[in-house]
Specification:
The complex is a heterodimer of chains A (203) and B (257). Chain A is 43% helix and 12% strand. Chain A has eight helices and six strands. A four-stranded parallel beta sheet of chain A has the order 4-3-5-6. Chain A has a two-stranded antiparallel sheet with strand order 1-2. In chain A, strand 5, helix 7 and strand 6 form a beta-alpha-beta unit. Chain B is built from six helices and eight strands. In chain B, the strands form two sheets. Chain B has a five-stranded mixed β-barrel with strand order 1-2-3-5-4. In chain B, strands 7-6-8 form a three-stranded antiparallel beta sheet. With 257 residues, chain B is of the alpha+beta class. In chain B, a hairpin with a 4-residue loop joins strand 4 and strand 5. Chain B folds into two domains: 75 residues, OB fold (Dihydrolipoamide Acetyltransferase, E2P); 171 residues, Up-down Bundle (de novo design (two linked rop proteins)), CATH 1.20.1440. Classes of the chains: A alpha/beta (203), B alpha+beta (257). At the A-B interface, helix 7 and helix 8 of A face strand 1, helix 1 and helix 6 of B.
Amino acid sequence: MPMQSAIPQPVTALVEAFSRLPGVGPKTASRLTYFLLRAPDDYSLGLADALAGLKAQTRFCSNCFNITVDDPCPICSAGGRDATMIAVVEEPLDLMAIERTGIYRGHYHVLHGAISPVNGVGPDDLKIRELLLRVEAADAREVIIATNPGLEGDATAMYLQRELADADVTVTRLARGLPTGGDLEYVDSVTLMRALEGRSDMV
Amino acid sequence: MPRQSRSIRTQAIILSRRDFGEADRLLTLLTPSRGKLRAIAKGARKPNAKLSGHVELFARSDCLLHQGRNLAILTQAELIEPYLGLRDDLQRGAYANYAAELLDRFTADDEEDAGGLFALLDDTLKRIANARDPRLATRFYELALLDVVGFKPELSECVITRMPLLPEAQFFSSDEGGVVSRAGLSLSQSRLLPIELDSLKLLRHLQRNANTYAEVESLRLSADEHGRAERLMLAYIAHLLERRLVSAAFLERLRGG
């Protein structure tokens, strides 16, 4: 393409790198690149440092597989948290969402995905074996399955329930129902059904 | 031919979906009139999204799509048939994964007039959700699907000698796409799998009744009979697709452990 050759190679390289990011198309990638070209040096150098540090300084926690700088991670090594309670989530961001509620004082386990054979993800691609070993080793009382409510998350939950059937542990699943601020009129029938099934006494 | 409208209202079955962008989902849909197509459901991952529960994986929904430059955009959706039985049961859910993966792999995007395929998948998901024997429903589906996409295995005559098959155990050639009789054995160049008489009879029965599930649903098969027929079909399908399906491996795992 003759147009391309007018743009210096370092610029196209960064545009290409940006456009591989989730949610970033070629236009946004160019905009970001040209913004950095014009920005003060320390701005782009700071970004470069942050990027380099991201991979070099982080690892998986060997206990819960959250992303961390220190192993074990701050949550696993914190005093005052209940190590016999393990909330199983799909992604580190799900863990953060539960932490933001401020009411959960147990530990976590990050699976890094959900079972979805149609997308090529089977049980061996997730940190499931690690969870089973951990439940046994930690003498866990309760495993709270907090995978996403949807076919993949539900399949993962049912699979875990099956695998944990022989372990001496209570397996629970996050309740599902209506979102705050939602509108009944727009709720799908499956969600509404689960909400009816899971209705609770008003206290 | 009239120009295709930029907006279509259609029923669709969600074959697969993955996260896209900040809070969107990229869906692969099967529709009766446009075949398989990809559409973006904007904001579908937010809990308050109107769309999210209406475009669940392996559900049938009434959809309003707008044709964008590359991908269609899903603007409205209403869940019609969730095939509930396959959501509460790991095994049935795994069969649904397999059915959807097969359809996805055997079809190309934007094939018009996929009404037959759509009805087949709809019927199959209903059966997988509710039927006594989802494994039988799955075999039935495989044979019906292979027929539609042009890979119908030859189960009535020997692919080498072209003679009608005798009722006996013989061989199956994935390369030749059918059964090789004992007489044709020495003439075949391809890799052969044994096919027992019960598998041959079962698969032939399913193939001959490809439009009438009622004719086959009362069959009662032992786990061994199922296993033999399944191994053969999986081998043939893996050969056609040149890959082993993750969904098939997952089913095997569920049965084993």
